[in-house]
Amino acid sequence: MDEYLHPLSVEAVEGRWPSASAKTLTAKLQIYFQSRRKSQGGDCVVRFSEQSRAAAVHFRSAQTRDQVLSKGDHSVSIENQLVKLKVFKPGDEGNQTEETSRAAGAGSDMAVDLQHPGGILFAHLKQKTSLVEKICVV
Predict the structure, then answer these.
(1) What pLDDT band is residue 126 in, cutting at 50, 70 and 90?
(2) What is the CATH number of the domain that holds 132?
(3) DSSP character for 17?
(4) In what residue span(s) does the PAR14-like first RRM domain sit (predicted)?
């Protein structure tokens, strides 16, 4: 996870995600934000918190993160429902909510990196400036 140092916060515009599992939501967001065509994104890891129902997307490069921000409107189809996304840098006080802060912090439940063979799941714990990473192969 050390190479994914450029985060974005992601919320559903209406404040509610479809009732899909965290694993499904994480995978859908991962696919969307890795697609240059769909999101202007690239290599990234998505962390979704079931408790707060918010996500954090960590990109490998700042340039890719900035391209995603410059796109403007983002939406993803989850369970036949089009979900409009609010995407912003963590700490943008005008946009950040308490839920997104928790997703970007210690409350993260799940992250998926589909770039690795075997579908590696990352569980992360962020403590101030240090990041502890546990890797579980599925």
Answers:
(1) very low
(2) 3.30.70
(3) -
(4) 13-87
